[in-house]
Write a structure and sequence with these properties.
Length: about 425
């Protein structure tokens, strides 16, 4: 009797995603069913791969959703996968390899907000922002066969991380309201090969396409990663220096950080900012021993145009500046700048006043140099100098009486001589 027969059958109801909201979990067989107004505030977690075909999912009004890719893939064609027309969508990947891909603009943001924390978004254009705001952070990957991230019209974005690639990895479109620098979160920079990027490609003028700064509406090509800026690398930072001053300010061209104004630091007369400092003594300096310290005035010029003031911009110290010789020096140490400069100068010996007690001396022949009675020598400040025929600061020369030719030293042979002391 077939009417009394009993049996069982296995039924498999598949779900592509689960929807969690306020502690309640439901399941959907079509991903679009998860993004309804009634599910606003929910976290939608993919359970399997989803192919949207030529359809797309729209986020509108004030609805708020979090999409967890969970290592799965969302595919779309023609119109892309998501169109943000209002509300808020956060994309993350709690699994490995989660991605959203299409052959068109994979995610288009017209209004509202989009946050991509992880996962991959790829397409002809990965993400296009023409309105609303977008935040990209963490290890999110945005790639495009043509453009990874395109910002145009009134669109805005803040980049806290992410890797971007494409013929144009990131494009701040000429019709947009932001520059490439505007897209970066404070303290972040674009990087290639772990080095901060300071230049992009764009219109140099109305006829020339070439290298431009990040402060323009321009394009970064290839692959770039956004991460915290370390301000290192050749040409990454530059100095701004006002001519005739001893201060400058450093700016990072990659992230826009500006340091506080600081004093110039001079090495061999040059600062990294391009400022120059010259310390000089008078060209006609001619010093003679006086028995007291000699302090010739120095001139300190910055950038060849402005003289600095002693005791205001710098201090001066002298050393070995009393005695005759070439060991005297003056040292200038900056107070309005960093740096020390040392200049040597020479003090010439003073010429003593020489006076003979008698104009005639009678000596006996000895076969040696004549042991004359030396003249008295008076140095500076009335100091008496000890002189004998063979010691002291004087040099003697002699000439045979009637001759004008003098020979250094003192005479030995008998005769009448004229002795000269100097």
């Amino acid at each position: 009797n077939m009417a009394d027969a009993a049996g069982t059958v296995n039924v498999n109801i598949s779900a592509v995603a689960k929807v969690e909201k306020y502690g309640s979990t439901t399941y959907v067989g079509a991903l679009a069913d998860a993004f309804t107004e009634g599910n606003s505030g929910a976290t939608v977690t993919l359970l399997s791969e989803v192919d949207l075909g030529s359809n797309y999912i729209g986020i509108r009004g004030s609805s708020t959703f979090t999409l967890d890719l969970n290592g799965q893939t969302v595919k779309a064609a023609d119109y892309g996968a998501f169109n943000i027309l209002g509300g808020s969508l956060t994309i993350q990947d709690s699994g490995t390899g989660g991605k959203i891909e299409s052959s068109n603009i994979t995610i288009k943001v017209n209004s509202g907000t989009l946050s991509i924390k992880s996962g991959t978004v790829s397409g002809y254009w990965g993400v296009e922002i023409s309105g609303g705001t977008v935040a990209i952070s963490g290890d999110a990957v945005i790639s495009g066969g043509d453009t990874g991230l395109r910002v145009t019209d009134a669109g805005k974005a803040t980049l806290f991380g992410g890797t971007f690639s494409g013929t144009a990895a990131i494009m701040a479109n000429n019709y947009g309201s932001v520059t490439l620098k505007n897209l970066l979160a404070e303290g972040y920079a674009y990087h290639r090969n772990n080095l901060p990027v300071t230049k992009a490609e764009g219109w140099v003028d109305s006829n020339t396409w070439g290298e431009v700064s990040l402060d323009t509406k321009a394009t970064l090509t290839g692959t770039v990663t956004v991460k915290k800026c370390n301000h290192t690398g050749e040409g990454v930072c530059e100095y701004t220096h006002a001519t005739s001053t001893t201060t400058h300010q450093q700016t990072c061209l990659a992230c826009g950080k500006k340091w506080d104004e600081e004093n110039c630091s001079y090495t061999n007369g040059e600062c990294a900012c391009g400022s120059t400092l010259a310390v000089t003594l008078p060209d006609n300096l001619d010093l003679t021993y006086t028995g007291t310290a000699q302090t010739p005035e120095v001139t300190v010029m910055v950038d060849g145009t402005a003289a600095l003031a002693v005791n205001t911009d710098y201090s001066v110290a002298y050393d070995n500046n009393i005695n005759a010789g070439n060991t005297a020096k003056v040292t200038v140490t900056g107070t309005a700048f960093t740096g020390t400069f040392t200049l040597p100068f020479t003090i010439k010996p003073a010429t003593p006043t020489i006076a003979w007690e008698s104009t005639t001396q009678e000596l006996a022949y000895t076969g040696n140099e004549a042991m004359i009675t030396a003249p008295k020598a008076t140095g500076v400040n009335g100091t008496q100098l000890d002189i004998t025929h063979d010691t002291g600061p004087c040099q003697f020369s002699y000439a045979t009486q009637g001759s004008s030719e003098f020979t250094n030293g003192l005479p030995i042979n008998a005769g009448t001589y004229t002795i000269k002391a100097r």
